[in-house]
Amino acid sequence: MTAAPDGPEDRLRRFATIWSRAVYPVTSTSLTRPELEEQLLPLARRLSGALLARAFDAEAAKEVGAALVDAHCTDPDALSHSLDCVDAYLVLYCGEDGPQEDLRTRCSRLQHAMAAGFAQALRERTLAEQEAIAQAALQAQGVVAQALHASEARFRAVFEGAAIGIGIADLDGNVLQVNGAMMRMFGGGEQAVRGRNVREWTHAEDAPQVWRLYEELVRGEREHYHVEKAFYRPDGTVLWTNLTVSLLRDADGRPQYQLALMEDTTERRLLNLRLRYEATHDALTGLPNRTLFFERLEKVLAAGENQRFGLCYLDLDGFKTINDSLGHAAGDRLLVEVADRLQSCATAPGEMVARLGGDEFVALTTGPDTPREVDDLAARIMNALVAPVRIDGRELTVRGSIGIVEGPAGERSPAEVLRSADITMYRAKSAGGNRFELADPEADARAITRHGLTTALPAALERGEFFIEYQPLVHLDDGSVRGAEALVRWLHPQHGVLGPDRFIPLAEHTGLIVPLGRWVLEQSVCQARAWRERSGDTRPLRINVNLSPCQLTHPGLVQDTVDILERAGVEPRALCLEVTESALIGADDDLLKPLRRLAEMGVDIALDDFGTGYSNLANLRRLPVSVLKLDRSFTQSMQQFPADPVDLKIVEGIVSLAHSLNLAVTVEGVETGAQAEQLRILGCDTAQGWYYARPGPPERLHELALVDATG
Length: 711
What we know:
Elements: H1 8-23, H2 33-52, H3 58-70, H4 76-94, H5 100-139, H6 141-145, H7 152-161, E1 165-170, E2 175-178, H8 180-186, H9 209-218, E3 224-232, E4 238-249, E5 255-264, H10 266-280, H11 290-301, E6 308-316, H12 319-326, H13 328-345, E7 352-357, E8 360-366, H14 370-384, E9 389-391, E10 394-396, E11 400-408, H15 414-430, E12 435-438, H16 441-463, E13 466-475, E14 481-492, E15 496-498, H17 500-510, H18 513-535, E16 542-547, H19 549-552, H20 557-568, E17 575-580, H21 581-584, H22 589-601, E18 604-610, E19 627-630, H23 645-660, E20 664-667, H24 673-682, E21 686-687, H25 698-710
Parallel strand pairs: 11-12, 14-16, 16-17, 17-18, 18-19, 19-20, 20-21
Antiparallel strand pairs: 1-2, 1-5, 3-4, 4-5, 6-8, 6-11, 7-8, 9-10, 13-14, 13-21, 14-15
């Protein structure tokens, strides 16, 4: 028979056993090891609960760290052994069947919190000891000044038994006496400390105020001071301490001795440095992360007018494709290789490379000649990316787009610099990628404006900031007004009236073009009904409405159009939907199906901007269109007489082809009478342009139609 698998409590007990064995040799306690194990068991249970909890709880791990101090596990090695034990065995014995990568990440965070709780509890305990010793020292001042007579035994007990270092020196700085804790801190015998002069203990990292405070104390100008100070040990290593120095006076109040209380913070400092490093460096590549980069950039930008900076913002081209096709592990290896190459590009003083996240990196350079240096840095980065990266037997080509920002410090904030670099990088990417571009304030302003318009679009539709202008469609044979094209405008609160070229691409990018297009269609159809009711004409004015590619693929296009026409009481033949030629190039049957359904209902479909999409003319037979709108580029030469013979032949051929396919021809951009007459002779059916009227309110079209009817 096989033994039953261990339950959670058995695995928890095993983890506590391993933990007790790891820390018992470095624990100052009268407990036996099994007794210590029983004391650690509830702490192990708390760590296990924090590891498996739905939400991460750092306080539980901090309390475990503090409990180690309460259990007299105060030796730095006790913390180190505990963290090693948690790192190696907590997920193994207490992780159950959870996702290992997430459990390892949470285990690492628990270690950090546990170390923080340990350090805080040890500090509080040490401060309490310092306070007790300081009180004892103050009470013993008279004893020292009067030859340590009546209470010397009590002071000696405190002096020798304290866990922190204590030293006494005269006012000239000569060390007279030290306790055992201080000797152990310095790692030598009493002769390594006693007999030396305090002024010998200078260190390269001493804060400027350390020795100023010392001189004030020995002159009797202050009673005590507290600083963080480093000392060199006899073996050359560094001892970091929290140092409190107090002045001891004689019975008459004259300064006589100085008393130093010293807490060893070396291990804590190393732990804090480790945690600081992990908080400011990217775990995958080892490069500085966004936090550290912003700290550096803030210092550079605050350096003053004489300082200049240059920044390269890099984004890899096509990195998502690598992740999607080869997996994230391959993507991570690629990022590590790119990080190594970037690091080799920024080795000069004042240069720094960081990873901001994902496949975005940034390189920073400072100095008096940054316009040249940042260009050189960008060129080095581009050259470093040329060589392919080999991953799992494949050679991957690495390409990147870089946005460069250069200028004097003090003019922009870090956020503004990064925004400009980001905008410039995307400008390089939109230009084809694998290149770098220099920041352009005007381009930045346009991008910021585009972003502002994009974010304002939804609210603008709700607030009714859009309106429609109408440009008449005129029949070339008799000059009668046959209808109008609806052209949407945006009355922006800050920028005034904006044409469709300013916001339609943004609406298409965000998907707002669908509700906006539906609104334009509904308003235009209602306007067509109003014209019919005012004129009483049995031949309704036709309304032309533009459809974007996004609207063509929207499943509700046909039903929305039917509903709008029925609610308005307008016949389908009064509506013409304009679709650009480029949107229908290579269109399959699924895309053409809604247009065919609308055409079968009687709605006209116009192929807008015809001649700009380079489509195969033979494809016209399969498209459900009834009107060709000839692009203005074909007829611009006809504004003057005589017209270009080549353009005349082209237009004549297109008109002949269209009529042979039973398609009407509309011409855009007619601006002169000569142009209109020439187009009439060539057989074009209708036209629109400034020669007839500019886009305007619906009342103007009604007036033009009345003039046409009575003229």
